[in-house]
Amino acid sequence: MSHAIRFIASKGNKATSAGSVSLACHVKPGASAKREGINSVTDDGVELCVSAQAKEGEANKAVQKLIAEVRTVHLPPT
């Protein structure tokens, strides 16, 4: 089973770098503005819709902007 969100611990100085987060994303470019955003989070991935087209890096930039705007992630209790 793969995981949509994984924390990767730092091998170096923990005071300067806590690690990184890996997101498995399924991106749907060219979506309507109403559908833009995070649609679902499952064990397999995060489904994102962006209105930008998949050309010349436009959709990738839109995904980066969308993820940067997310301030709080609510996780279900384990």
TrEMBL record:
For this protein, the parts annotated as crossing the membrane are none
Top-level taxonomic group: Eukaryota
Q: What family name appears in the similarity comment?
A: Belongs to the UPF0235 family.
Name the chain's protein. Answer: Uncharacterized protein
**From which organism does this entry originate?**
Diplodia seriata
